[in-house]
Amino acid sequence: MDVLIQLVLNGILLGSMYAIISVGLTLIFGIVRVVNFAHGEFLMVGMYAAYLLAAKFGLHPYASAVPVVLLLFALGALVQRFIIQPLLSADEHIQIFATVGLSTALVNLALLLFGADLYSVPPSAAQGSVMVGGFSLVKGQIVMFVCALALVAGLHLFMQSTALGRAIRATAQNRNAALLMGVKVDQIYVIAFGMGAACVGLASALVMPLYPVTPTIGTYFVLTAFVVVVLGGMRSMYGAFFGAMIIGLVDSLSGYYIAPDLKEVVYFAIFLLILIFKPTGLFGLGRGTE
Amino acid sequence: MKSFARAALAAALLVAASPFAGPAAAQGTVKFGALYPFSGGLALLGDESFRGFELAVEERNAAGGIDGKKIEFIKGDAVDPNQAVGEARRLTSVDKVSAIFGTYSSSLSLAATQVTELAGVPYFELGAVSDPITERGFKYVFRTNATARDFANRMVDSVIEAVAPALGVKPTDLKVGIIHEDSLYGQTVSGYQKTRAKEKGLNVVEILPYSAKSVDLTPVILRLKSAGVDVVLQTSYQNDTVLFFRQMKDQGYKPKAVMGAGGGYSTRDTMQAVGAENMEGALDVDFTQFNTNPKAAPGLTDFVAKYKAKYGIEPRSGHSLANYMGAKVFFDAIADAKSTDADKVRAAVLKVDIPVGQTATGWGAKFSEQGQNTRAQPFLMQWQGGNLVTVFPEAAAVAKLKTGVGAN
User: Fold this and answer.
1) Which residues does chain A have within 8 Å of residue B237's beta carbon, measured at their own beta carbons?
2) Residues of chain B with pLDDT > 70: what percent?
C-alpha cells in the first residue's frame, strides 16, 4: 500500500513536468496549427541556456527562469516569423518537414558547440527530497507541480480576460473570421508560437536541477509530450494538463507493476486506443473542432 | 578542410617519394589506416581512443619504426556504420593501407571489418567490446581489448571474490539485482551476467530492463527496494546512471553495493553530475584507468606523461590507454612478421605471448584462433573521494574496497 501511494505521488509530480512541456506544445498546435517537431530541441536550448547562466554567472536555475523564458519566447517568435510564416499557405507536410529540419539542425548545432558530454548545474536544494507522512517527495518536482498549476491558471486568466487573449482564441477558432474582425493574425501566430516556446523555457529552467543536459535530451521528453497532447484533445490546455497527469501515473505505476521497459508500451497502447475510439482526445470538443 | 588535408597529404607524399627527399625516403614507409568516429555523437571518446593509437605510432617512429620503416597513418572518419563501410573501402582500395586500426564503437567495427576481411587486409580492434566482432570466423580481425562477456564475468565474479568478503557475508546470502538499459549494449552485458550468475549460484532476485531515455527510474528503484536487493549490477549510459543515483537518494534506497559496467560509470562528468559524495563507493568494471598500481601495468605512468606532454591535459578516459597498448602489441607482431602480408601478419599475431601484467594496461596478450586476446581482463574500480581507483584484483589495486554507497 505504501509503495502504491508513493508511486501515485511520483506519478503526479512526474506528470506536472510533462504538463508544462505539453501545454506549450498544445498552444502552438491549437493556435498556429503547426505540429512542432522541434519542441524537444527548444527544451534542449533552454536547458543549455540555464546551464550557461549557472556556469558563467552563478545563477540558480530557478532565477534563470526569467531570462530563459524570454529567450525561448524570442526563439519561438523568430521561428514562426522566419520559418513557419513563409510556409503557412503551403502544404501541412512542408511545415512538418520544416520543424523536423529545425530539430535536426539544433541537435547538431548543440553537438558542435557543446559536444556529446553531459552538463549539469551544481547540486542545489532542488535535488533533495522531503518526507511527508513517510513518503519521499523531491523538492524540485514539488516546485514543478506548483508551477504547472500556476501556468495553467495564468494562461486561463490571460486567455479569458485580456484583449490579446481573446484575439488569440478568436484566431484559434477561425483564422479567416478573426482576420475579418481586424485581428492581425500573423502577429497573433508569432506571439502564440513564442508563448508555446516560452512554456518550454519555463520547463527547462525547472528541469535543469534534476536532469543533466545533452544535445539529445529533447527526445527524452518530447515523444511523451506528443502523446499527452493527443490524449488531451489536441487543442485543450486543460486537456493537456490532465493528459500529462494520466501519463505520469501510467508511467509510474506500469513501470513498477508491469515492467520498467514496458511502460512506453503501456502508454502508447493507451494512445492508440484513444486514437481509435475517441480521435478527438479525452477532452476534445467532438468532431469538426480539430 | 578534408580535401585540403588530402591535397596536403598528397603533396607530402610526392615530396617524400621524390629523389630529393633524402635518405629517409629510401627506407620507405608502412601505411596504416586509423578508423575512428572523429565527428558526430561518438567523437569525444572516438578521438580519445585515437590519441592512444597516435601516441603509440609516435613512440614507434621515434624508436625507428617497424623494420626501419616509418609508420604513416591515414585517418578515416566513421560517424556511423554506413560511413565506417565507406571509409574502410577508401582506406583499403584507394589508399591501399597495410592494416586498419580502430574503432571504439562496436557497431562501427562490425561494419568496417566486413569490408577489410573481404579485401584481405588485417583489422586491429583496440577498443570495441561486442563479442561477435571476433566470433564470426574472420581470419584477419584481431582484438586486444576485453569483450562484453569479460565485463559481465568480472562483475559477477567481483560480487563473489571482492564484495562479499568485504561485507563479511556468504556470496549466496546476497540478493543481487540486475538492471540494464534495453538497447543492444545493455541486453548483451546483462545476458552474460545472468548466465555467469547462474553458473556461480548467485541469488538473482530482480532483472529489470529500462529505456535509457527514461526520465523516471523510481519504479525500478522501488522494485529493487521492495525486493530487498543488496547488490545492484547496472549496465548503463551516462544520463541513466546520473538519474539512477539521484533518484536512489531521493527514494532513500541504500543497497550494500552498486556496480556498473563501464559506460556511464567511468566518466568524470557522471561523477560531477551525481556529486562526489553520492557517487562515493560506487563500483565500476572497465578498461584499465589511470589510478592503477603501476607495478601491475608497466608503462602506465610513462604513457600518462607522454599524453600530457602532447595534448596538454590529463587523459580523458581509459580508452586512449587501451588503444595505445593494443597498437603497440600489433606493431611488435607486424615487425616480427617482417612483412605486411596478411597471412604472415596473422601467423605472427597468433605467436604473440605476453604474460598478464606486462603491458601498460596490465593485460597480457595471447590470441585465440578467432583473433581474440584471451589475456585481457577489465579491472574492478571504485569511486573514492571523487577519483576512480582500482580496487581489484589485488596486484593492480591502489586502494582497499570500501563498502556502502553514497553519503546516505
Assistant:
1) none
2) 93
Domain span including residue B25: 2-146+297-377
Q: Determine the residue among A220, A264, A266 to mutate to test chain B binding: the one whose Cβ has the most chain B Cβ atoms within 10 Å.
A: A220
Q: Is the pLDDT of residue A47 over 90?
A: yes
Question: What's the confidence (pLDDT) of residue B208?
Answer: 95
Which of the residue ranges A68-72, A205-209, A265-269 would you say has the lowest mean pLDDT?
A: A265-269
For residue B44, give the nearest of A117, A210, A263 by CB distance: A117
A215 vs B41: CB contact, 8 Å cut-off? yes
**Residue of higher predicted confidence among B366 and B317:** B366
- B98 in the same domain as B202: no
Q: Note the pLDDT of residue B3.
A: 53
**B402 in a structural domain:** no
Task: Say yes or no: B71 and B109 in one domain.
Answer: yes
User: How far apart are the CA of B288 and the nearest CA of chain A, in angstroms?
Assistant: 21
> Is residue B226 in some structural domain?
yes
Q: What per-residue confidence (pLDDT) applies to B21?
A: 39
A118 — pLDDT class (breaks 50, 70, 90): confident
Chain A residue closest to B237 (CA)?
A118
Look up the CATH number of the domain holding residue B209.
3.40.50.2300
- CA A99 vs CA A22, A34, A36, A168, A185: distances in Å: 17, 9, 6, 22, 20
Q: Is residue B220 predicted with pLDDT exceeding 50?
A: yes
Mean pLDDT of chain B: 89
Hey, are the CB atoms on A255 and B220 less than 8 Å from each other?
A: yes
Q: Is omega for the bond preceding A26 within 30 degrees of 0, making it cis? A: no
Residue B183 forms contact with A (CB below 8 Å):
no
**By the CB < 8 Å criterion, does B272 face chain A?**
yes
CA distance B179 to chain A (A): 10
Chain B residues 356-385 with CB within 8 Å of chain A: none
Q: What per-residue confidence (pLDDT) applies to B114?
A: 95
* Same domain, yes or no: B328 and B360: yes
pLDDT 10s digits, B86-97: 999 999 999 999
CA-CA distance, B403 to B391, in Å (whole number)?
12
Q: Is the pLDDT of residue B24 over 60?
A: no
Question: What residue of A is the nearest CA neighbor of B46?
Answer: A116
C-alpha cell at B253: 534506497
Task: Tally A–B CB contacts below 8 A.
Answer: 101
* Mean pLDDT, rounded, for A27-36: 89
Mutate to test the interface with A, among B182, B216, B245, B254 (most CBs of A within 10 A): B216
Considering only the beta carbons, identify the residue of A118, A136, A224 that sits closest to B273. Answer: A118
CB atoms < 10 A from the CB of A262, how many?
15
